[in-house]
Design goal:
Order of helices and strands of chain B: EEEEEEEEEEE
Distance between the termini of chain A: 36 Å
Structural class of chain A: mainly beta
Largest sheet of chain A: 7 strands, mixed
Order of helices and strands of chain A: EEEEEEEEEEE
Number of helices of chain A: 0
Strand content of chain A: over 45%
Shape of chain A: globular
Oligomer: heterodimer
Structural class of chain B: mainly beta
Largest interface: A-B, 23 and 23 residues
Radius of gyration of chain B: 13 Å
Number of strands of chain A: 11
Strand content of chain B: over 45%
Helix content of chain B: under 10%
Largest sheet of chain B: 7 strands, mixed
Helix content of chain A: under 10%
Number of strands of chain B: 11
Chain lengths: 107, 121
Amino acid sequence: DIQMTQSPSSLSASVGDRVAITCRASQGISNYLAWFQQKPGQAPKRLIYTASSLQSGVPSRFSGSGSGTDFTLTISSLQPEDFATYYCQQYKSYPLTFGPGTKVDIK
Amino acid sequence: QVQLVESGGGVVQPGRSLRLSCAASGFTFQNYGMHWVRHAPGKGLEWVALIWYDGTNKYYADSVKGRFSISRDNSENKVYLQMNGLRAEDTAVYYCARDGGGTIPTSPHYWGQGTLVTVSS
């Protein structure tokens, strides 16, 4: 199975900050990676697919990059509605696997 | 618009069974793979199972293989998760999700609001 790790596990940031979350796969997954945002009590929302493609309707301050084993989700200017937990997920092979999550909260 | 509504959750004793259902609308159901994903209290997301658009291929997380079974009824626009031999660690909110790809699945895209399964004596 492909293991996914994320760093940091949590971070505190202010509105307007640039934030970067990294995700690493235990083996190469090409660009078969998605990023999700989840707020408490809500279903997850897919932000990015194929590592860098922005889901329709998602603000352009979100961007994804990377290929192979190392990936990054960047929020260019953090907004109040962005405080949430973010997960990466690989879909290169089964079973699909999520990273452990990165919680972004208010400094 | 895409709508997914899960049902069937509840409190169940360890070792017993439960069947979750997900009713889909707003898209051509028979064209998409369907996932189940769960979120245990205080933990991260865990992908559980996937069934291809036509039901020919099914895949499972190691933690549920041999105990859970995914199925679908394309005439009723429904997907199911049969859960047998339930354990305390299966306690979670279970989400039904439509795949983001076409006939070749990718990752979950549209999600339901989830149904809570609690395994406790």
